[in-house]
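B., you asked whether I could sanity-check this one before it goes into the benchmark set. Here's the sequence:
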Amino acid sequence: MLSLALTLLLVSQCYSADLVETLAGDPIASTLVQLVQKAGLTDVLKSGTFTIFAPTDGAFNKVPAATLTSLLSDQQALSNLLKYHVVTGGHRSADLFNEETFTTASGEKVRINVYTHNNIVTVNGAKVTDADKAASNGYIHYIDSVIMPPVGSVVDAVRNDPDLSTLYSAIGKAGIADKFTTDPLTVFAPTNDAFARLNQNDLNKLLGSPDRLAETLRYHEVAHTLYSKGMWNHEYPKSTDSNEDRLHIRVDSSDVSINNAKVTTADISVTNGVVHKIDHVLIPIRVGIWLRFNNGK
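And here's what the prediction gave me:
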């Protein structure tokens, strides 16, 4: 009985600190604690049960100085960003599942991905580095990057990026913009330079054949969310083209490649998944054969 009583006492002491107090007692959360105080969120985080996806000091060090300075001068923007890292309820890491989304305290969705092959959990692509810090009113999961709310779907991201204007035009010509709004979705997005690397005759043939153009563009889609931290070397995900052709992902210490293309900008979060810019257009084998031997007919 004495042993049980001591155990219960120790457990109660461990859980006596609330979320803010627990963060304040952890050296890796000093920046987050200061920002929570500056944003006036201390009482909010003490007033209910929450799960915090908490950027470490190292995560905040990755934020461009100009962005951080802007946030520090705008309390509402700072508050909204910090609330984006908070969801209602106590969620342990064991309870999280792949492609789960939560509505955050800022009112926007955040996406969870669980990659079982390497035991990595990400939140909008940020890696959970230390999970399940228990507090009296919830849980803290430390993450290695500050997460920003995505603005719009894949189509919106492509339309609003000048570096992807050729891709956006091709999507329009193929008449498949709606295919890029499904959820979840990963898109390997060829840049304008990637399209410029194509043989001009091949590009003209594709643009003149909406069906084959659509097949080619959908060869750049995967029907689940693949952030870079969840990819592994020699992964072969299915594309969303009509044959569900496989892509070949290669990962090394410095690069991520998809077939013959390198990822030049990774992990652009969107409301329905993630976009990675690549430096070559991916061509399905059967489209490549058509381009070579059928003169575009």
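One thing to flag: The radius of gyration is 23 Å. Otherwise nothing jumped out at me.
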